[in-house]
Specification:
about 190 residues, mainly alpha, 6 helices
Length: about 190
């Protein structure tokens, strides 16, 4: 945990043991994201009509509309799990060396997409099937931002050497302090 002590911790400069731990975490999150993409593909086909059918029902396809209880159960689960995933994933992503403003925009897009992904099924089920487009767009934006938030830290930790963001920060101590430190080590 000493890596975090000095404030500005960056994954690209992390000790190997830390990189390995974050790598396993991110790989498992990537598998989880892959499963949700597969589930959405099977449930809705990533189409507004598929979303409308899934939540509002479709007699021709023998799909029953979701009950208010089913809607609440799904919302409940997502409202508890998504913040935890975002806390963990956001923590790793925000420790990259990308510009702060860009990282904040990526996280903001992801959070807006979460809201759309959780709210739009309610609008579809109890409002209009046209809100299915909001669900598709929100889920696509969420998937893309989360995948980026997983893949980029992995790239920064393990990508080819010599990238500009991997260069160590210059020593900001004055020459007098550097000389003093060197004399302490040699004496």
């Amino acid at each position: 945990m000493l890596e975090y002590k000095w404030g500005k911790f960056e994954l690209g400069h992390a000790p190997r043991r830390t990189k390995i731990a974050y790598t396993w975490l991110l790989l498992y999150l990537l598998l989880g994201l892959g499963t949700i993409v597969a589930i959405e593909t099977i449930k809705t086909g990533w189409t507004p009509q598929g979303v409308a059918d899934y939540y509002r029902g479709n007699e021709e396809k023998f799909i029953f509309q979701k009950t208010p209880l089913e809607m609440l159960e799904v919302a409940h689960m997502h409202l508890f799990t998504i913040p935890v995933v975002f806390f963990i994933l956001g923590h790793a992503f925000l420790m990259t060396m990308l510009k702060e403003a860009f990282k904040i925009r990526v996280v903001a897009v992801a959070m807006a997409a979460v809201f759309g992904s959780i709210a739009s099924p309610w609008a579809v089920r109890f409002g209009s099937g046209a809100f299915g487009a909001v669900k598709v767009i929100s889920d696509a934006a969420l998937s893309m931002t989360l995948i980026f938030m997983v893949v980029y830290p992995l790239y920064e930790m393990w990508g080819p050497p010599g990238r500009p963001h991997q260069k160590r920060h210059q020593d900001t101590r004055t020459p007098r302090h550097r000389d003093t430190d060197a004399s302490k080590r040699s004496g």
